[in-house]
Amino acid sequence: MINKNEQISPFLVFFLVLKVQIGVGVLGFQRLIIKSAGNDAWIAVIAAGLLFSIVIWCMFTLLNSQKQDLMGIHTQLFGKVLGGFLNMIWITYWLLMGIAVYRAYVEVVQAWMFPQINVMTFSIVFALLIYYTVSGGFQVLTGICFLGVIIPSYLILTIFFPLEYTEFRNLLPVWNHSYKEIALAARDMSLSYMGFSTLLMFYPLIKHQKKANKWAQLANILSILSYLLLTIVSIGFYSENQISRYVWATLSFWSIVEVPFIERFEYIGIATWVIFILPNICLFIWAATKGTSVLFKVEPNRISILFLVILIVMSLALKDRETVNTFQDYMSYVGFILYTVYIPILLCLSYIMSKIRKKTHEN
Question: Is the pTM of this model over 0.85?
Answer without folding.
Answer: yes
